[in-house]
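Human:
If only I could read backbone structure tokens as easily as an amino acid sequence. I am handing you a single protein, as its sequence and its fold in token form. I hope you can help me see how the letters and the tokens relate. Thank you; the sequence and its tokens follow:
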Amino acid sequence: MNQTQDIVGIVAENRQAFMRYTIARLRELLRNLPQNRLDLFHILPFLLHVNNPSFPGYVESGLSFYGIFRFERSGFFKSAARIFRLAEPDLKALLPGKHPILGLYLMGSAGTLTQTGRSDFDFWVIVRADQLGSERLTLLERKLKIIEHWCRSEHNQDVTFFVMDIEKLRKNQFSSVDGESSGSAQQTLLKDEFYRTFIMIAGRIPLWAVLPPDLPADDTSAFVAAMADGGVPMEDYIDTGNLTGIDPRECLGALLWQVYKARKDPVKSLIKSSLAAAYAFMGDDGSGLVSAQVRRRFATARIDDYEDDPYTLVFETIMEFYRDMNDNDGLELIRQCIFLRLWSYPLMIEPEEGSPKGRMLKRFLLRWKPDPETLTLLTGLQTLSEKDHIAFEDRIFDKLSFLYELVLRSADDDQVKFFMTKEDITALKNRTSAFLRRKIGKIPRCSVFLKSRADSGMKFGVTRVEEGREDGGFLGLYDESQETAVPIHTCRGFMGLTGFLLANGLDVKNLSHPMKSINDTAVFFDGVLPRPDSCYGQPAEAVRTIVLLTAPSRNGDLENVEVLSCNSWGEFFYAVLNVAAIESPEAKCYKITEFIAPFRFGMSVPTIEYRVSPPDALGHYPYVFSLKSMAGKADIPVESVDVETSEPVFEKKGSVAPKAKPFLDLI
């Protein structure tokens, strides 16, 4: 047998192994999908293949910007035809004449042991941008956005399509940082994640999947040429580029990106950050990359087996990393995070006994041997208080800070610089700051566990805390399903509770007894979140501020002032000022004007609203004149303001912060 025949046989054997592996991954994916999302998953590729008003994603145009290469041969095509009940003549009328989409691939946790009921569908849509052209590329992107919106609104499923130009993908050149993409923060790291997790959906097979796992990078071109000479149908494949190692300059940016991503899932972020840190200390040959380990296991992969799952290999890699560092505290924390990941954190669903995930968990526990107290704490996570959940997340953020400094201190001078564009550095820094940095007067974040429960429909109640206090006490937000109403959050007024709900994306409709004051305030801030990606390239400035002035009675005098403000980064600030002890109405108005000035700073076109409770309590001079004056002017100098209870002190204009290590101060 000559060399060409050997190569043809090797490719055929590797292709079969890759397809068996793909089937195993798809089985794990489908196992964990409820019926409605299962049908959605089956029809999504079809929606990219056709463009008709009868189907979601339609964009009116006569141009050929849709259609997946050889999609009609796939099982997804047949499934969609069955679900939509399309007769053959109707089906043929829908088919595109051209197929500009070269390949469609699902990547991420879907189809792995870490898949949960909340797992997103993240698709890479590969095209050749120079052939598609800017106009048709814009039409395709518009179509994909329409499908994403339809999936969220009709199926409550987060779906994101990332359009990739094959030429840039081959060179590891990705888009800029936005809300869903890490952009230039990760390049070889993102390629590694793609190769270790992707599932082939339709189109061309990446060459990476059928090349010999141990093929030296310098021999790749010769091997591919021999494939073509030997008669291998090269139109079946697409060259998405090789991966010989991780550029260590990416690791610092990747760690910061995971700090930002931790706002949604700190457990997942620490696992990914630990892998990035492990890669920073790994050799240059790339043989230890999880993607390389996955490819070496294509030939042995079996259905319902957990040993070859991508995350099994990730877990093994990061635990070995902490052992090598002799970081016992880090090893214990990452083991707890792995346990929670297998329990579908934050949903906390015990894996089915005998399933691949259940068998993986059993083996993991046998090796870990956690003490009973720790195991009870983890399995009963839903019974912990909000304070305890925040404390656990803070442990994770401390470890993220440690990993950042570890990589920073170990890097060579030429690697300390972030391997990112200046624009991406600014955007990522500001995104991270908006989420994590604690500022006086800023409304605190809630735990990921609370957010997931709220998204699942939990009901909040509101109660008065410490009613015997002379100042009237505090308002408390609590979980109505708990027998002991321990407040989740407390503040001085309804506007502060509204700010906590809004700042954390908690729907005011989750209140068991809707309150007009809360609903009205929520309406005022409607549309503020989410913030557009462009806003993080500029300093934060106030965008909307609401002021509530309260008098003890309709004929009384002004006593209390509440301010709730949101800036352009989506941060909410709340403060209270008691002016009851000030006798002169003019002095009260001056104090209020001074008090609200920081909340208006930077507003080029002020969106500010004043409310009085009771509505006609302050209808006499000088309050009428002063309120009109405050609403029409925004030229009050920014000064430090001490506020009762929360004591927010705003920085004076011109103050200079001490120089710190690159972005370490954000954590």
